From TrEMBL:
This is ATP phosphoribosyltransferase. The lineage of its organism: Bacteria, Bacillati, Actinomycetota, Actinomycetes, Streptosporangiales. NCBIfam families: hisG, HisG_C-term. Its EC number is 2.4.2.17. It comes from Streptosporangium becharense. It is found in: Cytoplasm.
Length: 281
């Protein structure tokens, strides 16, 4: 039985559920369901607070989990990243009233509010800056206006929250984050976990690629293959038309319209693009 931790609340919840569903695992019926047993996949899904997930996985009570990279660093748990999952992208940054600070070294002796104290403390120590860390649970941006802190260190995605309260980022980003699949540091990858990883990689590839089919004159095939090299090499089949071949290859979704334009210029016709629903590469 694979025991997997999934965020039950917050920014990662919906996307984590979607990717697991696309990978063939059972979804929960409503947000009050805390454990879902999925006998068909020999899996139990535990819906937990995203910040607690690294702790459970690090303690070895759960085999794997989906959490944010920033959260896993913050927890200090003995876990390792298996694969990045491509959603929940954010940066973790300092912010303050405009013009007040320009770099982390300006924070010496000042108060910095955050809900990621572990991450912030280790960054400040690394930078050799002695500042006071004020631990808050959330909505930390307000701490400056309320006089509890001189600066904040928080998750920034679009920057809207900061703008709304009149704060500006300063200094280098502390870390870049996205959702990741984690397991206990040095823990053995069970058959169930290997299957989960393969399925998730399949979903990620299916999201990143499209399938492209086209017909082209045989003498232009090498130029066409240079544009659509595929994974192992494209499938080239004879066409029931003298001097023409049919080509099928996986192409990166991003930029596939440009590839179609270039193929058209080479004389390719009947260029079709279809979604890949699932795959194992
Ligand atoms: N607006 C956002 N856009 C993208 N990712 C985000 C955003 N806010 C948070 N994240 C990321 O999502 C993960 C979980 O953060 P989230 O804010 O959901 O948890 P939390 O603060 O513990 O929960 P809650 O906000 O419910 O108290 C983190 O890795 C964080 O980087
Ligand atoms: O740059 P933005 O797109 O505005 O996103 C960043 C905001 O999103 C998160 O807040 P969340 O909703 O999780 O509330 P919290 O602060 O209580 O955790 C984060 O803590 C920031 O406040
Ligand atoms: Mg939050």
């Amino acid at each position: 039985m694979l025991r997997l931790a999934v965020p039950n609340k917050g920014a990662l919840t919906e996307a984590a559920q979607t990717i697991l569903k696309e990978a063939g695992y059972r979804a929960r019926k409503d947000s009050k369901e805390l454990v879902v047993v999925d006998p068909e996949n020999s899996c139990e899904l535990f819906f937990l607070r995203p910040k607690d997930i690294a702790v459970y996985v690090g303690e070895g009570t759960l085999d794997a989990g989906i959490t944010g990279r920033d959260m896993l660093h913050d927890s200090g748990a003995e876990v390792e990243e298996i694969i990045p999952l491509g959603f929940g992208r954010s940066t973790f940054r300092f912010a303050a009233n405009p013009g007040e600070f320009t770099s982390v070294s300006d924070l010496k002796g000042r108060r910095v509010a955050t809900s990621y104290a572990g991450l912030l403390e280790s960054y400040l120590a690394e930078q050799g800056v002695d500042a006071r860390v004020i631990k808050l649970d959330g909505a930390v941006e307000t701490a400056i206006r309320l006089g509890v802190a001189d600066a904040v260190a928080d998750v920034v995605e679009t920057g809207t929250t900061l703008r709304n309260i009149g704060l500006e980022v300063f200094g280098e980003p502390i870390t870049h984050s996205e959702a990741v699949l984690i397991k206990g540091a040095g823990a053995e990858e069970t058959q169930g976990l290997r299957q989960l990883v393969r399925r998730l990689q399949g979903v990620l590839t299916a999201r990143d690629y499209v399938m492209m089919d086209y017909d082209i004159r045989a003498e232009r095939i090498e130029e066409a293959i240079a544009l659509t090299p595929g994974m192992e090499g494209p499938t080239v089949s004879p066409l029931h038309r003298e001097g023409w071949v049919a080509v099928r290859a996986m192409v990166r979704r991003k930029g596939h319209q440009q590839v179609m334009d270039q193929l058209w210029e080479l004389g390719a016709r009947a260029i079709l693009v279809t979604e890949i629903f699932a795959c194992r590469i």
